[in-house]
Design goal:
Number of helices: 6
Helix content: 10-25%
Shape: globular
Strand order of the largest sheet: 5-3-15-14-11-10
């Protein structure tokens, strides 16, 4: 079940065919469960790895983006799959991505998987030792092997296992928007945090009527998101897209004064053309005109907002690792 299965929607733009990040051509998603959590992988290319422009916005400086942070800031480009996983298992996940890269090119060049892209998602209420021991290189390999262009699983799946938001079980969510000119913007995110009374659906605050109790003070309020688009955007434009995507997290109520950390990474699958060199030592790149950015910003924000709600609704019908209650989704639109 998803938000629209309850007759509700977010924003004014039309969703893509699956209303998922995989509506962006070439984007694939896979996940693998662990004992106390799991990993979720997003692969923004088909076939062999290739470089793509990327940008990011972080709430607290970007500690969640491990490995690819410096490359994103310095070069504005990456060539790696992106894996969302608990920070306690970061070393093992990093090794798994290294193994993936070595399997493609023993030299691990910058255009074939270096540096590994790991986005840490904190907040699972499990002992750090169990999170560290429960996820291995094999989980990374399994998630990458499972990656497909089908609509991703949502809720308590992959890195979403054990996550909760607004007092209810949550986890992984996805959504997309298709712009009139044909470009697609899609979001894959992990939601963890938010206060019950703040939950909002398309501008209507619904949290107070749901009767959910606040998450305990010991749980870190965090989020992580990947925004993908086939619109051609330069790194500085992708920085702005990531920042504007956060508006959707504010609107739904997930990002607030209690949020302790979070990162949004935005990428363009079409702007960098390594296959069309402009000359020795040069590549071709393309960009969207300034006048075309506002609709992309709106699409990213709407997709983030709906992805959070999809995570909550999907998780409601799934078992919870930490005993968080399901969201009473049938009451979301009670006053409409």
């Amino acid at each position: 079940m998803r938000l629209r299965d309850h007759g509700l929607a977010v924003g004014r733009l039309e969703p893509g065919a699956a209303n998922a990040v995989t509506d962006v051509p070439g984007v694939r998603v896979g996940d693998a469960p662990g004992a106390a959590s799991g990993v979720t992988a997003l692969v923004p290319f088909t076939g062999a790895p290739r470089r793509y422009f990327a940008g990011r916005w972080s709430l607290d400086g970007g500690d969640e983006l491990i490995g690819g942070l410096a490359m994103t800031e310095d070069f504005g480009a990456l060539s790696t799959p992106l894996v969302l996983a608990p920070p306690q298992a970061a070393g093992r996940i990093y090794d798994g991505l290294l193994a993936y890269g070595f399997g493609l090119d023993a030299g691990l060049p910058e255009d074939a998987g270096w540096p590994p892209g790991l986005i840490a998602v904190d907040g699972v209420p499990a002992p750090a030792a169990s999170l560290h021991a429960g996820l291995t290189e094999e989980h990374v390999a399994a998630a990458l092997s499972a990656a497909s262009g089908d609509a991703p699983a949502e809720g308590q799946t992959g890195v979403g296992r054990g996550l909760a938001a607004f007092g209810a079980r949550a986890g992984v969510g996805t959504a997309s928007r298709r712009l009139p000119g044909g470009a697609v913007v899609g979001v894959l995110l992990a939601a963890n945090g938010g206060e019950p009374g703040s939950l909002t659906v398309d501008g209507e605050r619904v949290g107070p009527r749901l009767g959910l109790a606040a998450l305990g003070p010991e749980r870190r309020r965090t989020f992580a998101a990947v925004v993908a688009t086939d619109a051609p955007l330069l790194p500085v434009q992708l920085d702005r897209l990531a920042q504007r995507a956060s508006f959707g997290l504010v609107r739904v109520g997930l990002l607030d004064g209690n949020t302790s950390g979070g990162t949004i990474l935005a990428l363009s699958t079409t702007a960098l053309r390594d296959d069309a060199p402009a000359g020795p030592g040069a590549v071709r790149a393309s960009a969207t005109a300034e006048s075309g950015l506002p609709e992309l910003f709106a699409a990213a924000a709407e997709s983030c907002e709906e992805a959070v709600l999809n995570a909550l609704v999907a998780a409601g019908g799934q078992p919870s690792l930490d005993g968080s209650p399901p969201l009473p989704a049938d009451r979301l639109g009670a006053d409409r």
